[in-house]
Amino acid sequence: QVQLVESGGGLVQAGGSLRLSCAASGRTFSTYAMGWFRQAPGKERELVAQIDSSGFTKYVDSVKGRCTISRDNAKNTVYLQMNSLKPEDTAVYYCNGLRYGTLYWGQGTQVTVSS
Length: 115
Prior knowledge:
globular; four-stranded antiparallel β-sheet; mainly beta; 11 strands; seven-stranded mixed β-sheet
């Protein structure tokens, strides 16, 4: 069982930056593929970025060049650095972890970008 706790969300003006963190419990964090998803009001949850256990990353086109996902296995934490934020980035951001077909989710953190 893995517990994921997100932090770092908040209100920011367009063009600003935020760094989201997701702290995981357990001793096997380094073996998990981790991801950040987001869900805006009235929309489906969508993938933002992923990082696998080897450090390979993947991004949705809308955030390429603006966001960077990274992980610190010593701290059991995955990060999402978001720059040049836009109002359309407003959403609840969720962290997830995947290992051996089992998917875990955090509770989410709100990101609001004002124009």
